[in-house]
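Q: Given only this backbone (533 positions), what sequence would you predict?
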């Protein structure tokens, strides 16, 4: 009998290995199929053809860190810059996996994409090993993973959403593993993971509430006071990172007017402002959601998927709670995971309405939906109605209504753009020399104009050309009004202007050296005179 039990356990290990391998192949398979369906391959993905300008900032900052330890020029907005070093408005912790990847394997235009795929693969494998799901649960997970096309879109991008998703998937796998077999080192790892996530994006503090609950349940007051200390340490670390390493953005990254209203208007005045803001922002939220149903507006489809996932989590949490109370059972591990994620969804809903711009904040909800898929796949339901409902919604929102190329089209290489970038890279390499003695320095910064006024009207800058800047260069994203109003007192050495625009005219009148130009961009050096190409 013992021999049979030993054999069975060994066979279970083989089954688990097969499951882990199959799920580990799923991210790459989805990427390959998506590209093949459009007649392309993964190697055809080309970031300089993307319309997401955040990718440029992330890519060039990581490039500077990999080559020099930190960018040699400032990253900022309207020439803002961090008090220390040279990072933009977002925490550099957000892209630490890319930094490690670049240090190990080098950094090029494919690096963030390959790292994203590897991260998601590792998350899938670890989730299976930690949770040990059944074949039916893996079937549900596979279906929802494939239908939620944002997984593929963000893997094939230079955006850090996949980093957040991967860490959260591992976080919940580890949490469920801890609940099945409690070990203190697992609890420590949960605090580490949730702490890192909080340093990446502050609203991720919601996920730290789970290890806090688990520690308090395990150790009582000792766990409570220990958790408060950890929360204070993580919150303080984020504040220091934001204060010293973050450049000021055009507008606040998140709004606190609903808090200051209590000090400015009194308690009851603050309450009125709080609820009125919830009402008006909630009205806009629903309006965008309806537009998502009608026209496929990306923010609206994100809101729709988020609301449905939150409803599923709340319903299942309530149903499991009543069942366990009726049967007088202890809280099951899956129930605790469901309840916590439902709480995070509700908390993020309030944070979105009170603290973020709705359309810009919508992309943050995609991470919640993505990790929700993994929790839903573990729900112990008989007919998987909720999974089927979510699958149908994902197919509708993210395939049938995915009509906006800006949000859904993977950027592929074109000969024209590739030649343009390579030409600019060669020309700028000849003309632009990094200042290395006192860094970071505005000597190593290029101004990037969001748009400018020409005879044909307002024209947007072809900012993708800035991928060709030499490694270590900083970028200051500026409104043209800022540049024209402060033209005599600008700090950045280089200006990437729009040919025929107001700023280009001012540069020519000032006699700034035109280092290189084409139909899309004119690159000036303020420290030199005359044309050089």
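A: Predicted residues:
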């Amino acid at each position: 009998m013992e021999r049979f039990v030993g054999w069975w356990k060994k066979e279970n290990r083989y089954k688990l290995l097969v499951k882990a391998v199959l799920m580990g192949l799923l991210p790459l398979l989805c990427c390959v199929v998506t590209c093949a369906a459009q007649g392309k391959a993964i190697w055809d993905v080309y970031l300089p053809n993307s319309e997401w300008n955040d990718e440029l900032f992330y890519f060039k900052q990581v490039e500077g860190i990999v080559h020099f330890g930190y960018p040699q020029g400032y990253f900022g907005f309207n020439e803002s810059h961090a008090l220390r070093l040279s990072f933009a408005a977002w925490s550099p912790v957000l892209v630490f996996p890319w930094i490690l990847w670049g240090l190990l394997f080098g950094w090029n235009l494919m690096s963030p994409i390959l790292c994203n795929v590897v991260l998601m693969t590792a998350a899938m494998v670890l989730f299976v090993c930690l949770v040990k799901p059944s074949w039916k649960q893996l079937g549900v997970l596979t279906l929802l993973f494939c239908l939620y096309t944002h997984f593929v879109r963000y893997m094939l991008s230079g955006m850090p959403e996949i980093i957040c998703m991967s860490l959260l998937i591992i976080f919940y796998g580890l949490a469920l593993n801890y609940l099945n077999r409690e070990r203190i080192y697992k609890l420590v790892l949960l605090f580490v993971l949730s702490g890192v996530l909080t340093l990446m994006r502050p609203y991720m503090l919601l996920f730290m509430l789970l290890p806090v609950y688990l520690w308090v349940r395990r150790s009582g007051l000792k766990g409570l006071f220990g958790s408060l200390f950890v929360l204070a340490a993580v919150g303080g670390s984020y504040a220091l990172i934001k204060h010293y390493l973050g450049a000021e953005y055009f507008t606040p990254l998140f709004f606190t007017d609903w808090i200051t209203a209590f000090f400015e208007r009194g308690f009851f005045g603050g309450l009125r402002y709080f609820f009125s803001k919830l009402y008006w922002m909630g009205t806009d939220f629903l309006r965008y959601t309806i537009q998502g149903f009608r026209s496929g507006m990306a923010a609206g489809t994100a809101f729709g998927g988020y609301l449905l996932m939150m409803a599923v989590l709340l319903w299942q949490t309530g149903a499991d709670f009543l069942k366990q109370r009726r049967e007088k059972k202890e809280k099951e591990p899956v129930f605790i995971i469901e309840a916590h994620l439902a709480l995070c969804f509700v908390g993020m809903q309030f944070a979105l309405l009170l603290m973020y711009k709705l359309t810009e904040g919508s992309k943050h909800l995609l991470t919640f939906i993505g990790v929700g898929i993994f929790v839903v796949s573990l729900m112990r339901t008989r007919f998987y109605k909720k999974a089927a409902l979510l699958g149908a919604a994902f197919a509708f929102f993210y395939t049938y209504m995915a009509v906006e190329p800006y949000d859904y089209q993977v950027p592929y290489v074109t000969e024209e753009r590739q030649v343009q970038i390579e030409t600019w890279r060669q020309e700028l390499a000849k003309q632009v020399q990094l200042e290395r003695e006192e860094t970071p320095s505005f000597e190593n910064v290029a101004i990037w104009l969001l748009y400018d006024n020409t005879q044909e009207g307002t024209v947007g800058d072809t900012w993708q050309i800035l991928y060709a800047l030499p490694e270590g260069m900083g970028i200051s994203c500026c409104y043209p009004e800022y540049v024209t109003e402060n033209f005599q007192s600008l700090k950045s050495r280089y200006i990437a202007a729009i040919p025929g625009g107001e700023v280009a005219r001012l540069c020519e009148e000032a006699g700034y050296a035109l280092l290189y130009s084409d139909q899309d961009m004119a690159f000036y050096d303020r420290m030199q005179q005359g044309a050089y190409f």
